[in-house]
## 1
Amino acid sequence: MPKIKPPVRTPHIDMTPMVDLFALLLTFFMLTTSFRPQEAVVVDTPNSISEKVSPDKNVITILVSKADKVFLNFDNGLDTAVSVRKEVLKKMAEQYHLKFTDKELKTFSTGASFGMPIEKLKAYLNTTDSKEKELFQTGIPLDSTDNQLNLWVRFIRLQNPNAEVAIKGDSDADFKSVKHVMDILQDNKVNKFSLITNLMKDEAKLED
């Protein structure tokens, strides 16, 4: 009697659970992701072959625009119990006899780079229109009569001594402006800092 062979069935994988899991993960990331705030000024950095990556935390970034205006950004550090930006703003307010509300302090603590005299910062924090905010970004004073950048760096370093310093200068900026920033850093005993550049890859060339 001939042997009866059962019909061969193609394996079937139910993808429904995987699709559900993907939808849940996508929803989670959409709800929890926070976008990085836009920088105060667009800086076209020069090229270099250095592959060192700038840290995301514990960093003070000083931006120098092509118009030789200086802007500043710094994070809240690794200690989540203390807001470095909020505490530094309080120190600056005491220095210039200003007062910021809790709402203004909170807004500043979650902000990005800025560049304006401290006297205009209160109005900037209370402005919601993005175009009006851009008008405030005129650069941080750093002349001999009112060197506010020097005070910002000093108070940040006192609040977060472990913060690294990075200078992000535009390729068309005057070197004297960058040198002035370096001098201010050295006045605050910051003798080690990084220069942010674009990675320039070496092109392979055929030998003759």
## 2
Amino acid sequence: MKTAVGVFSRLDRAEQAIRALLKNKVPAERITFLTRSEPAATSIGKHLEGQGMLQLHSGTPARFSVLSVSGIGPVLVQGPDVSDIFDQPGRAGAPAANDPRRQASVSPGSEDDAAFFRRMLMEGCSVIVVRSDSQQVAMAAVEVLDELSLGIRKHAPGKSDVSIRQLPHAAVATFTGKLALEDGCHLLRETVRALLDGGQRRILLNLEQVNFLDSAGLGELVRTHVAARGRGGHLTLVNPSPNVRHLLRLTRVDQVFDIAPDELSAIERSR
């Protein structure tokens, strides 16, 4: 499953992205829109109406459903369930957004267990997630989200590679080249999976020599982050290159990931 992620601070930009995704033949059932704003969810729903929107588990058509996220409360969701991104069970049969019975769900220690996109949603941003097994659909989604969310118009040249080093308190995976749909995402996913399968729970991703990150690479970082947490592990991004750091800051995920300036600092934290 390939995942592309776009973060939007303006509703008109998110609407433009939804229209562009549909125009580029990304099926509506592959598109998920997340927001804390009911007017935003309603507005996006108009663009997706009649485009094959999924239904609630009851089988009743719905403009949007509600995902109760620890540390945030209710998040309005257009499209498929993405509760696994938030590292928590889905809300099957959740009440409609205008249901007065709807309540926030905040658990003790939610600051540590908060959803990955907690800060973006809390700051009023919205998130578009496209997930598909189809390479063609994924490429179309990345093209749209790269341009409208990240401001990227073309990919950088170069191949992806990784080297692994074992340290006393952590494993270091040093990536070079790109973390992108066609080169790097699979390598990142399989590298972290192999380390977790081998019993490694403290993983440092050295991104100093990564010169390109697209919306699919961002989505893969999200997936590996959640996968590691789900298996009792912890990821730290080490010294992201200026290009990567810029995009992490642009999408605000730099405030969510554990990011260390160098390997020594990351290892000291693990102790």
## 3
Amino acid sequence: MKNNILKTAVLAVGLFTLSACETDLDKINENPNDQANIDPKYLLTYVSKSAFAVQGDPMYASRMLIGTDGENIYQYMKWNDASFGTYSTDLLNTMKMMQEAERINNKNYQAIGKFYRAFHFYNLSLKFGSIPYSEALKGEFGITQPKYDSQETVMAGVLNELKEANNLINSSDAIAGDIIFNGDATKWKKLINSFRLKVLMTLSKKTTVGGINIATEFASIAGSQTLMTSIQENGELKFADAADSRYTTFNSSGYGSSLYMANYFINLFKDRQDPRIFTFAEQTTSAKENGLAITNFNGYNGGNPTSPYADNAALITAKNISKVNERFYKDPTNEPSSILSYAELEFILAEATARGWISGSAKMHYDNAIKASFQFYQTYVKNQNQYFAGFNVDNYLASSLVVYNNSAPLQTQLEKIITQKYMTMFHQGQWTSYQDYLRTGYPNLPLQTGVTAPSRFRYPQVEYNYNNTNLQAALTAQYNGQDNITSKPWWLQ
């Protein structure tokens, strides 16, 4: 179906349908009694649920999970194109929410709309490189074939929209329909500013973006803006045992039948005697049959993500491979799903300190991040006492493979930070762990011999069909005309 960045949008959220062939958007906004008007609170609920959904594909690419019922393209780094569907769903609904917010003069919905615009354009650009941005979503203005903006232009725009969102958010305008922070504008402001730091850290290989000095801007935001300070301020979605509100992978047949742990991921926890693994994985069948305690690290084993899937399937027969913990497909509420947690923010601050962008102790932020991760699982995992009984986080932080040294070489510090950050990202943070790997080389994810880790996705076929001239110009400008998954976009150069 033709992507709606190329035509005036059809917006459907189960509440109404709006066709450009039948309706003038300007007239709709002038008539508060028109049936096409909708309270932005309904749209906020919809766009939030979509943005915070758990994503499984990054778990394969990041060497956390493996499949045993066939060759998964993400596990074997063989993916091809991705969709532009975000334009015709999430971004279009966000745009409509902002229009309705303007109609009722509510700045908070406009601010949150700018945050979601920034969030989606950021993720789209990291997937592809150059994307339609300045001319996107303007079908009603006659722009049916939007030009592609450079990745630098997009990222500068993302940072500007986040800055505008921070300036707009306030405590006066109500935020009904808010399933993330229950209408707390202060928490939204903290998420917006924390996400600004995430975007800047993503660009750590660059010095400037759109004329903005990245390190200087980071220091300015970190020093002057309000940021998340606890797991209670996580940018996360809590699930409920009700229709359309349950955990994203609840009742997933694939999770229950063929999804197992990767040995690379599971061994990081075994080597560090880290009890978080007990919340991620099931014991092997052999360990269960032999009555091993659930906290016995010898009862957990993963499969090799670079081996043929048949080899890993053989581990099932041998009863020597751990499935993903059943809570991920049997618990309708499970743990919240975050797009940016307090723990991740502290890791970002630790990295910024190690790089010399801000002053202070990288170790302090690193320790805070790890403590926040343990607090998260000790708060949200049911029956957590069976996993963490007798655990002391201070002893863990002092252990040889975990302890942080502010005086170590930068690469040593980065490896510590990014590895521990990776260990907090199971079913969290969407593609962040894989993007950190592309950016820093850490952790050192295993690859099949001769395989290069993809840096991006190919553009969708619909763009070749309906926007080919602008697409070809973008390919020529950034990838010498070639649309390959191993071509490096601007942020990685």
